[in-house]
């Protein structure tokens, strides 16, 4: 087990860039870390420089944001055996604590569930995700249904509203996460015509996936979400960010929205969020 230093983190980012979609979540973490945007994350490799597994995890567990509270580990693995060997390393995982393993290749899932069974702890699939990606401006289908002057970045003062509507929000730790996303990464919202506040918004997580896409119920079916994703995708491409999102299997509305804008999916790949122990 090797904790990557500054030079290794830069090298790992370059190595992972062409390995999407399987590596895109850890690549996004590395991109943020290398630009000083995710200070409580570190990356562990099974070997270096010829790695087969990279794990991005909190430096300090239990910190007062969702990432620390949920003890989220982002996973990239080339094969099951290497993944199982690294996760077995003493001190990498606490088998007596809640841990969320995020982005596990569905074809490597048995390695993790077998380990959990060996430790006598429960393991439960939280969700299975498609990874939808946009690789160039040529691929993007531009859409805009809102006047330019109503599309603006979110501000720190909007974090409470976003947190109150987030599927995983509603408490102080999730509020801190939302505030961190707004403060460190691009975001966009559609503002009320009268200046009353955001009606629809999209943010970027620390692993740089598009997320928290939401429109207030009374303002839906006006093309706000589609407009924001189109604008955000173009902005991220300009900044050199990876442009991608996770869409849960069965969520046909979100799947249709992203594919209508030019996002594509590799059907053979699925990413699993796996819970170890109960929260």
TrEMBL record:
Name of this protein: Glycine N-acyltransferase-like protein
UniProt-listed InterPro entries: Acyl_CoA_acyltransferase, GCN5-like_dom, Glycine_N-acyltransferase, Glycine_N-acyltransferase_N, GNAT_dom
UniProt cross-references to Pfam families, sorted A to Z: FR47, Gly_acyl_tr_N
Keyword vocabulary terms for this entry: Acyltransferase, Transferase
One of the record's GO cellular component terms: mitochondrion
Root EC class: transferase
Keyword Transferase in annotation: yes
Keyword Acyltransferase (UniProt): yes
Source organism phylogeny: Eukaryota, Metazoa, Chordata, Craniata, Vertebrata
GO molecular-function terms, A-Z: glycine N-acyltransferase activity
Source organism per UniProt: Denticeps clupeoides (denticle herring)
Family, as annotated: Belongs to the glycine N-acyltransferase family.
Residue intervals of the N-acetyltransferase domain: 149-279
Domain of life: Eukaryota
The protein's Enzyme Commission number: 2.3.1.-
